[in-house]
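FORM 7B: Structural annotation worksheet

SECTION A. Query
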Amino acid sequence: MSRKYRVGVVGAGQISGIYLDNMTSKFSNLEVAGITANHYDHARARADQYGIHAYESTDAMLKDPSIDMIVVLTPTYAHYDIIKKALLSGKHVYTEKTMTETLAQAKELVTLADEKGLYLGSAPDTFLGSALQTARKALDDGILGEVESFSIAITRNNDFLLNVAPFLRTPGAGALQDYLVYYMTALVSILGPVAETAAFVKTLYPQRFVEGELAEKMRFRDFGKIIDNPNESVVQAILTLQNGVAGTISQNHETVLTDIADFVIYGRKGLLYLCDANGFGGDVKFLPADAQSTAEAVTLAPVGAYSGNSRGIGPAEMAEAITEGRVNRASKEMAYHVLDVLDKIAESGRTHRFTKVESSCERPAPFTEEIG
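SECTION B. Predicted structure
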């Protein structure tokens, strides 16, 4: 029998809106009890908007015995302390990506959750959306035959992003942990864990002068000033998976304003074109190996129930897993492995050496059902 899990939300920033929208209306196994934030007035505003309680502090929320699960929506650098306190308070935890800023912190929390017999899940949960589940089904059905390689190429624009989202200048919010994490999670969920990597990682503009027509038009708060950004912005990597499949990643956050993503899996029987791993929906296309040069890829029929912005599905699916006594799909093991891969890419960028990824994880089970 399903049951409702009472949820406490930590963090009242921009991302909290879509989480609260969905967790208060879309998933019947969740009941949002309240919210807290560093600034109480921010928590109060969200609480009034959604008809929930505003806790004066995280500690006050954790002392509430009616709370089953904590959903952490703060910047990455704050995750470790909040998650550890929540686990020590006997609460299940789901956190926004990445689990923590460092791999050592994540390892400690994974161990603690196991010791306490508690669930710990982590975003991104976009791989549970219909687009990536359509790709997963195509692979499982053998549409590509033997998978031979993959390529991922993604672009963003830091001139825009670092001003509209200043948290991207904080530790743990660079190109790897803030954005490549979506594609790495998608890759691991579809093709399996990573064994080894070699990479070049650069911070092209540690400082930048905020100027230009766009900055002036959008009234960037730092217009006319010099801002610092210590985080990486360009990543070029080779990955070898544990199953022997190898591929490439090209990531550039210093280019066009519109996010552009090319994600292709190459197989003996053709090519599979995936879409933006930062979203839940979108077209997945297949081009057969014997297609003529003028042929267009065929759009595959979508599977799964979630094609719109479904952030919050991770906590809901985890609640379902707790009830059923199974591993949740956005599991701590996969989140730890993905963070390990990102960490090893950064290490390879520093050392200019091939770097082995020591951790592993199971591919999550396919997800096509609807929760609630």
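SECTION C. Observations
The chain has two domains: 5-126+310-326, 130-299. Residues 34 and 53 are 4 Å apart (CA to CA).

SECTION D. Sign-off
Analyst initials: ____
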